[in-house]
Specification:
It contains 28 helices and 28 strands. The protein is α+β, with helices and mostly antiparallel strands. Zinc ion binds next to helix 4 and helix 5.
Length: about 850
């Protein structure tokens, strides 16, 4: 649709002549419980000034119908002024009032106003999600972050519902079966940050208060919400506990009172992302309400997200990037603050930096080695490009680089800079230079060259130790060799590790230094005895790939699990995974390391990422001739560790899930079936509902789950989660019919909600079914452009990335991908980016396979 993909140039042009004084938005969602009702009434009145009277402009709006348009009392015909994406108006006055009345659509894709009906009790729930640009699916907007304004929402909804928005409600009036909620005007915020949540939500209310430096008291009403049918699983106390710790911590660090009044946190169904930082009305995916036992890693992850979103109230909501080029100005900071806050706020999640080093950074390393990588400060020309930039660079690499910046300027200067930044730019918009200005003031250092190296160039460096010793085994030179397209200044610690009397690998020396250029000598190391292990980037201060000298690598092969310190061990795991991905360590060697040492891995988050990576190593990076053998070894290992694990422990659950993911042989599948039937038991293992579905998925993928059995499980768990997992099980069956049905459900119709699109894709894509799914490689490349033009970008992205024939890890698929890319130079850049990334994953798999074969 022309005009849907707003460009940066258009946004700049619009901002150069307009200033918005305020929006009044009226929504009538009384029709929502009726599944036959496709639309709701939306009336927007926006008051704005124009510095060039007589000029023309447009509002963004994606609506099935526009009923009326009125500009300064003059009626404008929607038939000529509305083109499906924009409301065009001309003859602007210096001060304008524009009213647009439209029928907007309830969403199934999680974009705009999403509607969900709970299969448990038939209740309907609504919530909005907009970032980067879907407010225009709900009301007429100037959809760009730098046209901030106060918003006043009025929502008419079924009388029994609770309705929430960014601000508190001022009045509620009931009229028959409907109730109208009038909300207070918000502070000036960006369109993508506005929110409405409506439905019979369960509410846990609480309160936070704090004495401020000026002697006044800040009062913040708190609430945590979820669907009624999830209320019995809702651990609101834990959620609100983390919330209060976070509010204390960020007030200490940021020295700027929470600016948005109340703080609601709503756990919503079929959410496309983890969470969204709507001021005063944060939305989270409801999978964070745990129906069954999860490991502590899941609680840590949720707490991290709570703090991430809370940090956004300052980084992003109070001070907002001017355009999506500087998305990192909020996401990198929030990502950093999620981990920093878990420690600083004294939550019980003390291994947050281990998780960060091992999992968050893995996302960054992967993304930064794709051909589509980009500097942290990106060049974002339009909204489609913006949508794809919520990626491992903007989040995880940006956060890693901020961690390095803290090591570089010190945390005092860093946070003092943040405080000045909030005060100076409150309710405004910023760019990179605004941040550098405050940090240079507080640190006294020139940060332009640092920014050029770290923020304005792409790619990851690898650091390799070079070690020479004399006849007595003493170090004569230790050097750090830096590789990469751009060499950067790295503040790092070098750890020298040796065996202690118990046989554990422990740090005997820590040397901190600046690494610059291609080769840096670690002068302090000279004369020391040669250690068993040299660990570069110990303590994980910088962002780089760590390599090893040959002797250190031998030490790891024999004793990676002997490293006592959790963070050091996580760094070692991360490094050997990078070696495997880079085709420098055979996949089967990596699998052997996991099988040998994962059973002793104490950190549950690290263990779960080892499971994921070991499975990927076998499915994609191993020589295909060894794949079956590798799979058997993983399943045998999983069974062994499951039986050995402490009863009732997180580790036991993680191994049970890993067994479900790897089970293939009769022995493993027999146990899976026995666990489901209750005829087999593992002491301490509660086969609860979520684990049951994981076990059913194993049977379904092996062709051993009957239709009636799966239907029976759904009948026992006819919930949102149950339906999703049932759908995935159906699609995971190893038959041509199952694959065809899943493919068709996603591709041939847009009736399915986002959650079931995802479930079908996940079930379809079982790696072991590569012979069945091979048939879909050619149709996949044929349908790409149609999907991109016909579906919303959220769904199109899922289809393009999800159905890419990634299990077809052979040269012919690579050739097909290349042929499509060569033949479609004019395809949408965002679509090409996705295909290029999948293609690169495939090329990487082929390189890793060659390494494994050799
Ligand atoms: Zn964020």
């Amino acid at each position: 649709m022309p005009g849907k993909n707003l460009s940066r140039d258009e946004a700049q042009q619009r901002a150069s002549i307009l200033a918005v004084d305020g929006y009044r938005v009226r929504l009538d969602v009384t029709s929502a419980p009726d599944p036959a009702a496709a639309v709701f009434r939306s009336t927007t009145t926006v008051a704005f000034r124009c510095s060039e009277p007589g000029a023309a402009t447009f509002l963004d709006l994606l609506a099935p119908a526009v009923r009326s348009i009125t500009l300064n009392g003059r009626t404008i015909d929607p038939a000529t002024a509305y083109d499906g994406a924009r409301v065009h108006v001309d003859g602007l006055a210096a001060e304008n009032v524009l009213t647009v009345e439209a029928d907007c659509a309830y969403s199934r894709t999680g974009e705009g106003l999403h509607r969900f009906t709970d299969p448990v009790d038939g209740e309907t729930y609504l919530y909005t999600h907009y970032e980067p640009a879907d407010a225009r699916r709900v009301f007429a907007t100037f959809e760009q972050p730098d046209l901030k304004a106060p918003f006043t929402f009025t929502v008419t909804a079924p009388a029994a519902w609770d309705v929430r928005s960014n601000a508190v409600h001022e009045t509620v009036t009931t009229e028959g079966a409907a109730r109208t909620w009038e909300f207070a005007p918000t502070k000036p915020i960006s369109t993508y940050l506005t929110a409405v949540v409506a439905g019979p939500y369960h509410v846990a209310a609480d309160h936070y208060s704090r004495e401020l430096a000026d002697g006044t008291t800040l009062d913040v009403p708190l609430a945590a919400l979820c669907r009624k049918s999830l209320a019995r699983y809702f651990d609101a106390d834990e959620i609100l506990g983390v919330t209060k710790l976070g509010l204390d911590f960020f007030h200490e660090e940021f020295d700027y009172p929470y600016p948005f009044g109340k703080y609601d946190q709503v756990f919503v169904p079929e959410y496309n992302i983890g969470a969204m930082e709507n001021p005063g009305c944060v939305t989270f995916k409801e999978e964070f309400v745990f129906r069954s036992k999860v490991t502590d890693a899941a609680y840590e992850s949720r707490a991290n997200v709570i703090l991430h979103e809370m940090a956004h109230m300052w980084f992003g909501d109070l001070v907002t990037m001017r355009w999506w080029d500087d998305l990192w100005l909020k996401e990198s900071f929030a990502d950093f603050m999620g981990s920093y806050g878990l420690i600083g706020a004294r939550t019980r999640y003390s291994s947050a930096w281990v998780t960060f080093a091992n999992q968050r950074k893995a996302w960054a390393y992967r993304q930064d080695q794709l051909p589509t990588t980009h500097p942290i400060t990106a060049d974002i020309r339009d909204l489609e490009a913006a949508k794809l930039n919520f990626d491992g660079i903007t989040y995880a690499k940006g956060a890693s680089v901020l961690k390095q910046l803290v090591a570089y300027v010190g945390s005092k200067a860093f946070f003092e800079g943040a405080r000045r930044y909030f005060k100076r730019h409150a309710f405004g918009n910023t760019e990179l230079t605004d941040l550098l200005d405050v940090l240079e003031e507080t640190s006294g250092r020139d940060l332009r060259s640092w920014a050029a190296a770290w923020l304005q160039t792409a790619g990851v460096n690898s650091l390799t130790p070079q070690l020479t010793t004399d006849a007595a085994g003493r170090i004569t030179e230790l050097a750090v060799v830096q590789d990469g397209d751009v060499l950067r200044p790295h503040r790092i610690a070098v750890g020298l590790y040796d065996r202690d009397p118990d046989g554990a690998l422990v740090r005997s020396e820590r040397i901190e230094l600046d690494v610059t250029g291609a080769r840096t000598v670690v002068a302090e190391a000279v004369g020391r005895p040669r250690p068993a292990l040299v660990l570069l980037n110990d303590d994980d201060l910088t962002y780089c790939k760590i390599r090893f000298d040959p002797d250190s690598l031998e030490t790891l092969r024999a004793g990676l699990g002997d490293i006592r310190d959790d963070l050091a061990r996580a760094l070692a795991w991360s490094a050997v995974w990078n070696l495997t991905r880079d085709g420098l360590m055979p996949a089967r060697d990596y699998v052997a390391l996991v099988l040998r040492f994962a059973g002793r891995e104490g950190n549950i988050g690290v263990l779960q990422s080892l499971h994921l990576q070991a499975k990927t190593a076998v499915d994609l990076y191993a020589d295909p001739a060894w794949r079956a053998e590798g799979g058997r070894r993983l399943a045998d290992g999983a069974l062994h560790e499951l039986r050995a694990a402490v009863p009732g422990s997180d580790h036991q659950l993680a191994w049970a899930r890993f067994l479900a993911q790897t089970a293939g042989g009769a022995e493993h599948l027999g146990l899976v079936r026995g666990l489901l039937a209750g005829s087999a038991r593992i002491d301490g293992l509660d086969v609860d509902q979520e684990l049951r579905w994981a076990l059913w998925l194993a049977l379904a993928a092996a062709g051993q789950a009957g239709d009636e059995e799966l239907a029976g499980e759904l009948a026992a768990d006819n919930t949102a989660s149950g339906r999703r997992q049932y759908t995935q099980c159906l699609a995971a069956r190893p038959t041509p019919e199952a694959k065809a049905a899943a493919w068709s459900a996603v591709v041939d119709s847009d009736e399915l909600p986002n959650a079931l699109v995802e479930a079908n894709i996940a079930g379809f894509s079982v790696a072991a079914h590569r012979d069945l799914t091979a048939l879909y490689a050619a149709p996949y490349f044929k349908l790409l452009e149609r999907v991109w033009s016909e579906r919303t970008i959220e769904i199109a992205m899922r289809i393009v990335a999800g159905f890419f024939p990634r299990a077809q890890t052979g040269e012919p698929t690579l050739a097909e991908a290349d042929a499509w890319l060569d033949g479609h130079p004019q395809a949408a850049p965002a679509l090409r980016r996705l295909v290029l990334e999948c293609r690169d994953d495939l090329a990487r798999a082929l390189r890793a396979q060659a390494c494994d074969r050799a």
